[in-house]
Queue: 3 jobs
Job 1
Amino acid sequence: MTEEFYGLSAYTDGNQLRLAYVLGIEKKKAKSLIASGRTIPLPLKNVLFSFNEKVSEDDFRLNHPQYEEKIKSLAADVDLGMLWEMLEGEECKVFTLDELCDFYFSELSDYLKAGLFDVLSQDIVYFKRRLAEFTIRDQEQVEAILKSREKKRLQEEYEAELGPWVQSVLESDEDSTVEVPGKFKTFVGQLGNLIWLKQSSDASRFLDKLIGKSPLRLKAVEFLMKTGQISKDCDEHLVIAGIRPDFSQKLLAMAEELDFDSTGRNDLGEDFYCFSIDDESTSDVDDVLSVEYLENDLFKIGIHIADVSAYIAKASTLDLEAEHRATSIYLPTGTVNMFPAELATHKASLLPGSPKPALSYYATLTSDGELRSTHIERSLIQVSEKLSYRYCDGVLEGDEEAKEDLKKDLDILANLADELILKRQEKGAITFNRPENKITIVDGVVDITEVRAHSKSRALVGEFMILANNLGAQFCRDNEIPALYRVQEKSDEQVAMPETYDPVSFDAAIKCMKKSRMTPYPSDHAGLGLDCYTQFTSPIRRYSDLMMQRQLIAFLEGRDLVYTEDELLEIKSKAESRLGEVRDVQRQSENFWLYTYLEQSKIGETYLATVVNHLNGGLLVELDGLTLRLKLNHGKKLEIGTRLEVKIQLVDPKLNHAKLSLESILDE
């Protein structure tokens, strides 16, 4: 056998046929001169045959490209499909190269033999190769492979057109809308599924490959906005997170058909005076307040909560949508409601006008905030007035005129709220004093206003919502109604929240506090200074509040409870995941618009700031008035709490980046 291999020879290099000049056999290896000019030992199993044509070693060095070209030329004429058809009826299914040559060629040469092997070794359709033997594939296999190859060819042609078009869309002007050709609509639809359903697809993989290092979801949203699939008015952070800002036509139609049954409700009547206190722009009103004056200096305070359960049945289509959304989302760019606007801002919202279903919590209090009695009932309420925090603060401070009855009610509510807060503080309640900013955007221009830190009307509304939630939690606990309680263990250290906000003391106080959590077991809420606490008071805005409302109403009506403890825990788990996503979106959106505010109107201006942490290569500082924390590149490690004056040099909202310069250290 070893004598067969000498001179010009063909050998295999993977699936490639190569030419070599065999110089001799040494230790069961063919010592061979190859095309690169090197001499290597080839395994004998890789050497196919030696050519009958006698050429010298020098001829091989000079002419091997021509030999290879001749083989390639002959290989190009080989029709493997025809060979496969010739062999398909043969009983034998495995053939040697020589046998295949005998079938295919009427006259054979070494170059034809090499050409056939070259084609066979690279074939994936008709034959399977193992060393120098070839197995013929059956018809079903061949048809499947040919179909797959045709599909791949068409896909490559499609992508060759798609790539430049996608690139042109991404490079188009922000204000333009690119029409989607019919042949690319599937691609665009799949990118929509990436955003809304978080489904990967050929489209998402193609775009990911096309854009390189850019974030995939960010580019997909940009693409969908530029092709008109997503409104350019949508908050980008919301869309990137896959949260739909709108509702389907089916859900909108369902909301239009909703109505409630007033049977069994206490109709409070048109003369019952009650009012809401919210921001001027609020349209999804969950709660209203009322004051009744009793004998012996007692006050019956009504906290009336929109009864969303009167409209939305458990497991209905709208209910499942709300469960998925988990909460309404409040962003600088607008509100994304948990329910369609027809319900959230009209039918269920406690706005003045027509009678609305409510769940009314009553607390009879003394003038110093002592609780004498409580009562909960299903009611029918007609709201008298929609008031704003700004207006109510003005009335309470004597800066706004008001009807005598309203002023009296507000004074009573404010005084009682002060007493209730003091009682909770005596039990360890913590009052947070971090400033809040309201971000408004008009025609792309950002404005920042600080929410009044000591707003009396905000404090009184918050306090009576806390009272209602505490009463609801006690009612569930005392009547053994399965519920989700918000609990917080007492801190191991004393929590010292300063009266005047400073970021360092605030951070230290927060770090001392243990995290609150939801549980089916009633227990203390240390941060609120309460024996038990749940959340009922925002059923338009929070799905967990709607669940608690359903539980309580079912008990009041003597019906079977709506949820078991296991069901509550299952929905809680889903909601917590969603709420985490929502918090991230809100933080990202707020930060983006704060950075945009700096970019639009504060470049070159100075801010007072406080060092709150040390970072690699710099300091983390909080800007006064914005509670925005930014990196300041500074080599010197200043003490935490050091007061500085910094200048805004450069801002990139897309990257959440601002370049600051240190103007002065104020504490030196």
Job 2
Amino acid sequence: MTRGIFSYLEELQNDLFVLKPADIEQKYFDICRELADLKEINKIYRISMEDYKNSLEENLKAALEHITDDVKAIYFEYDIDNNWDGNYYLCQEYNELSEEDDDWACEWEIYIQGPDFYEFSEMYQMKGGFGDEKEEIGITLFLIVRTMTLFLGLAKKYDTHIPVCIAYHDQDPIMRTKKG
């Protein structure tokens, strides 16, 4: 029986705490090429993320400029179903992952529009999904992993005194980029 995507995402959360972004990407490249057609995984791998990264970083810098004592976390959410469209939310509440309550992400004062990433959205719409088929698990997981590792690299680049988190729309739990 094939593991479900949510099992892999739970493992990914732990990996975000202990592995470098490049090591995470390699680990899940190896996993996903076993689940999905290697040709499709290589397509995802070859999609340039440079413009997306630059926009994501520019928007993160803008979010950092709005940090006040009231802001407890920065949360980036992207919408897999709508062109990978994303926004940064400056949240006034925050709960640790162990509390299993991510309602804090709804308590935001400021949001900053982030980039979209049509190439990933298109690949997801054509081949991905959250069903039980190995192919769609592999494709969806690798799209998410590449997004997460890119974001993790940016989050680590800026030494924030508050948590920086990421999730796709309706993801539960929200991914933390560092403990505490």
Job 3
Amino acid sequence: MARTLKDALVEFVSIDGVKTAAILGRDGFVIESAGSLELDTDALGAAVAGVLEASEALGRSLPTGNLERHILEFADGTVIIATARDDVLVLIVEANAVVGGVRYAVKKNVDHLAELL
């Protein structure tokens, strides 16, 4: 099991098809990241904060409970956003990856990740 936040993110990136893993504050501030994609982390943080706010507002308007994961599928890849206590895990995944396996890894490891924050 990972001992540092960076190690935990590197473990996510070691999953086949996961290109980037990042931990963000709910305000969009990037706390830590790992992976092979070169990204504008400020733009990523701002976009994720907006998506998260809209998704949580939708959840509050429905009897569905708190947001746990948000999966966005695009033509060239998938973005998985998962809550980790007060922060957010973001994974950027290749289009041909087995998303179910990535989702399982998120569900299995997000609590440990939150403990490292």
